[in-house]
Amino acid sequence: MLNLFTEPVTLSHFLIVGVVLFVSGLVTMATKRNAIGVLMGIELVLNGASLNFIAFANPQLRVDSAMALGLDGHFFTLFVIVLAAAEAAVALAIVLRFYHDHTTVDIEEADELKG
Amino acid sequence: MTPINWHSCFFLLFAFLACFGAVAVALSNQIIRMAFYLIISLASVAGLFFLAGADFVGAVQLMVYVGGTVVLLAFGMMLTGRGPFESFQPLAGQWVLGAVVGGCLLAILIQTAVSVGDWGGTPVTPEPVRLEQISSSGAIGMGLMGARTDQLSEPDPLKREGMSGYLLPFEIVSVHLLVVLIGAAYLARARRKREDA
Asked: What's the CA gap between A34 and A87, in Å, rounded?
């Protein structure tokens, strides 16, 4: 590993942070029993993807600068952020509905459609 | 002695905070602490956006995510919580499975991220960073209106045609937001209680 206090940051470093965010979000989604906790996992996964888009957009971080996404990466990240906000609103409404009917947000209780 | 690279130092700081927050969200069981760690993680990701030269997107991340979405989640947990420190213990089997799958995925993806040589270095002759490159909000606004002012130097006219802006996705997202707000209000509105409850 480079000595990051003196060396410049590269695309790989951003990607590693994105990977950690993504995997943390995935584990959160898989293990949490609170429905709002699952929502937080989704937010983390989306943030990992956004970070990758932004890192790929910057031509200064990589050797093959001509391959950088440029402003397209920024556009995609903006759309991801907006859609995440919309998704959180709808999912929260569903969670509130579920809480209203079951007086709990434990997703283990949501088994009425179980075959 | 080589001078300290402050850009890299701040990257280390924000990267550590972002990873710490994300891992703490995965490990914590109390929902309100998870929200706090999520705020740390998302705000640090905004810092990473700034460091990667995406000022406008970083500001949007701070305003919409940290200021909007997480507050929405906090209200959700306040409306559904039954005590100040309510916690659901995860099932042991799920936890083991999640840890195994997550660990394998982490190993594979990090291996991939560091294995491409072109991603692990900086340009041999780096372009000097100019002010109009940094402040990208004007170009982003024009792109959402359908004109790519950042791609005017593209020599190939065929490629330039393919780089039309994002007006249609922008409109679709706008209508989508409207539909989502109406749908969320419809779903979450207070109904009369069920008769058998």
From this structure: 17
